[in-house]
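Justification of computing resources. Each target in the renewal requires a structure prediction run like the one illustrated here; the chain below, 449 residues long, is used simply to show the kind of job we budget for.
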Amino acid sequence: MQLTNIKVTRNPFLLFLPPLMFYIIFIFILSNNALWGDEYIYVGYAKNLLNGFYSEPAPKISLSDGPGYSLFIMPFMALKLPLIVIRLLNALLLYLSVIVLCKVLIKFVPYNMALLFSFFWACYYNFLDFIALICSETLSIFLISILLFLLTKAFAPGMRIKNNKYLFFSGFVIGYLVLTKIIFGYVLLCMLIGSGLLVIINRNAINYQKGIIILFVALTTSSPYLLYTYHLTGKIYYLGSSGGNNLYWMSTPYEYEYGSWFPSPNIKSDSMAFEKRVKSFEKGSLLNLKNRSSYIPGYEDSLKSHHQKDFEEILKFSEPARDDAYKKIAVANIIAYPVKFIKNCFSNIGRILFNYPYSYTLQKSGTLIRFPLNGIIIVLILFCTIPTIINWKKIIFPLRFMLFFSFIYLGGSIFGSAEFRMFTIIVPVLLFWIAFIIHRCVKINITKW
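Resulting structure tokens:
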């Protein structure tokens, strides 16, 4: 208690230096000069941007991901810095997200509670899955954390709409989040429709007016990309071409397939081969795929027998017609096998929360380490749900805004092939909500028998 009176120890930039050091060491240990998985996609898009375009024109259109993360790493690619430098940015982004969450919590809950929840996030080891990868998750986490901070400023009591710079900053962050993770584009659309109705019903409610301004700024921020995709594809509000493939795997009606995603296959000599997304950044530095594979033997034969015919048709097209073909088959599967689709959705919830189950995948004891942290969060969410409903009107508006934003995102993720990392990026919001409810709305008395 005496130590908390020392000003230096209350400085979050110093308090959370040990986790930062751990992140840096962890990245150094795991990093090499190779690209793996989605890394080469983001690096490829960054190189395209440096050459003055994002996607090649038809028929070679490629819009699997938004440009947000590629724009972020583009300056480092322009300087031709080693890959380790870009990966070390993940450590900085996570460190800053912890600090921002701490600063937000301190405004609304006691210091010790804010510190506890911030250290929980700093030690949330599930984000170690992607901390050493060049991928968009860490940037998304940082944007979510900054958005929390900005919204508490934008919706602060007495803060008017006029000259409220935080409204525009919040909208810009949401817009950039849409460019980074395209699923948030659909969240933005849902929020815009809902907020528009609320503004019509409650014309004098200043918070609803602020909310619609934030969302319109977000739409404006993402509009150049939407105009670009319209120019390429002729489709309105077209965010990317990966949705059809995800929905296709979610709609699979076959036994032992639980809706988990597989890399896009290709057809060669009438045989379907699944692409292994590995690409060397420097010659001779390929990763060893055998150490990363956990599929059961013969899984490719099962996939071929189930999906060969579909992909022979789908792969005749180029993007975005291929995306439409995926969706057409997926819808047909869902209509024909609705019960199996519902089962796949339940499996998807399991993957989002606990990284289990995956199709044709061996059981691993490592899966058990996923349960403690997310198990704690899920129990606390269930505990906080009823107090939240009872005290809904008393909850600060920025938290209500972010709860809608987060649960629309999580709800939408259930219907497309999702992974564990999709839950991780929204954890800062959940921790803020849980801490706020426990402090403001819950009273615990411990009495002797």
